[in-house]
Write a structure and sequence with these properties.
Rossmann fold, 256 residues, single chain
């Protein structure tokens, strides 16, 4: 089914109809799902955040990502206290921020482009959530955060935007702080289909779409992401998508 939908999206993109059709597809996904699940965002907000209305998958990925991020921070020497602050970049409707808030004493912040997603977070989650712009800067002071993370955000950017946001996240992260970023890699079926270009270039767009839309799919190699993150960041660890537990690769970057 995913292959068929992917081919249909490619065909619509060639006709200039991809983004409009995809927005309709997202609404159709939500329409056929249980909109209200106790403690969770409505189905359409889950689709915008996770690409699926499935409540079980939404909860599972959020919990696994939160636990994994806290363990990675500890492993790489960032021990968070109540004086520290964390940024969820592209927080959606709090898939990770919800469970993570109960795992750390640090103050949690989140930003996202979508007013409805931020509105739900403000009404239902602990933390400070703001609507951000599609391009830098973020509304935060330099060096504010000990830890920044994002799940399935750099997956939906073109290369210039990704490079710009990597630099902006460096601006708001203190020296020695960490960024934990997920990305689509060559071990996923879509990535394997992009070889050998992906290995040579380190970044390839698999499917076009509007900037930030789930339709747009960009793939990195770990080295490709590290090159675009330099000189602001140093890659400390890379977990490929088939070993991360959340279906995407994870890069652990240290602020220079």
């Amino acid at each position: 089914m995913k292959i068929v939908l992917g081919r249909a999206a490619d065909a619509l993109n060639r006709l200039g109809l991809g983004d409009a059709a995809f927005r309709g597809f997202q609404r159709l996904q939500a329409w056929g799902a249980s909109s209200r699940v106790t403690g969770l965002p409505p189905a359409y907000l889950r689709v915008l955040t996770a690409g699926s209305p499935d409540p079980g998958a939404f909860v599972h990925v959020g919990q696994v990502a939160a636990r994994t991020f806290m363990a990675l921070a500890e492993t790489h020497g960032v021990r968070l206290s109540a004086e520290d602050e964390i940024l969820d970049f592209g927080c959606g409707c709090g898939r990770v921020a919800g469970p993570l808030a109960g795992m750390t004493p640090a103050a949690l912040h989140g930003c996202d482009l979508h007013q409805r997603l931020i509105g739900w977070c403000r009404a239902n989650l602990a933390g400070d959530f703001v609507v951000s712009r599609p391009t830098p800067p973020l509304p935060y002071a330099p060096g504010r955060f000990a830890l920044v993370y994002s799940v399935s955000v750099f997956t939906h950017m073109h290369e210039p935007q990704a490079a710009g946001w990597l630099a902006e996240l460096a601006r708001v992260t203190r020296p020695g702080g960490l960024a934990l970023l997920t990305f689509l890699d060559e071990r996923l079926p879509g990535g394997a289909a992009l070889e050998p270009r992906l290995s040579a270039e380190g970044f390839v767009v698999r499917r076009e779409g509007a900037e930030g839309s789930n339709l747009l799919c960009g793939y990195f190699t770990a080295d490709g992401l590290a090159r675009r993150a330099a000189p602001h960041w140093t890659l400390l660890e890379h977990r490929p998508s088939d070993l991360s537990g959340i279906g995407q690769a994870i890069a652990v970057l240290r602020r220079s």
